[in-house]
Amino acid sequence: MIKITSSENISTQKPRKKVWGKKWWWIVGVIIVVIFIIAISSGGGNKDLFSQYIQTDKVREYKLMKSEDISFGNILRMKYSVIVPSDISEDELKSTLAKIIKEKAEKNKDIDEIVVYAWDSKESFEGMALPLGYAEWCPYGKWDGVTSEIAEKNIRDNYKIVFHINKESLEAIQKRKESKIKFGLDEETRRKIAYELEECEIKGNFEANKYYLPGCEKCPEFIEANSKKLVDKIQELTESCKAKVRDKYHISPDIETAIIKESLEENWPGPESRNILPPCCKSGF
Question: Which of 156, 175, 194 is the last residue of a domain?
Answer without folding.
Answer: 175
